[in-house]
# Entry
Amino acid sequence: MLLLIEKIISSLITLPGLFLLFNIIILLYLINKTKSYIIKLISLFIVLLMVITFTALGIHLLVMPLENFAAEIDNFNEAEIKKIPIVVLGGGSHYGENESQNELSSISLARIIKGIMIAQKSEMPLIYSGGVGIGYEGVDIDNNVSLVAKNFGNINLILENEARTTYENGVEIRKWLKENQYQQIYLVTSANHMRRSAAVFDNLNIEYFPVISNYSYSHKLAWLDYLPNRGVLNANLQAVHEWIGLLWYKVNDRI
# Structure
């Protein structure tokens, strides 16, 4: 019982739970003090938005539809590795004040490790597709990718560092496939990113076998997940990014 109380208190006095607590207090104050229904509705909307994004309710509404889709189309069979190139979509990097502080994000690391596992068995080229973020032009992240690959053995690593978006990943990979006369690839990316990636590669008529590298959050939820916490918030924000990306790509005829 003491541990239960500690967890509840901790979730409410640390971020993001503290924001939710403050906004609930503000909502209760406005309900009692203001006559404006618009202000009350805005405050209520903010609280509901926080409840969804700060707790596992958002996992149900935002994350699982993306990741369940990925699980449904993932037909990767580790026992029957095909002799085709492996394409790993980059998931960002962390940049330091000097080159020694640059490193792959945890998302990129999970993706490339999955790709390396396939490449070791297939002995086919592994293409890591993704350049540096906007505003970081001139930063070299190639060494970070190469170091990870070298730690896992002799991998035929190819760095595609021009693409900065999922759509550009597809365009650059299509060029490489035509130049090297390959017809199929393994497409490795995170579960929450697979829906947009698959739509892009479908639109570009690239034949691929989808491979999930990682999930953003557990799909088996405990009661603690329904308390505000940073892990849930991070997973939900990633999902929001993907849903907006899907809408944006649809509007711009990229999918």
The beta strands are 86-89, 93-94, 103-104, 126-129, 157-160, 184-189, 207-212.
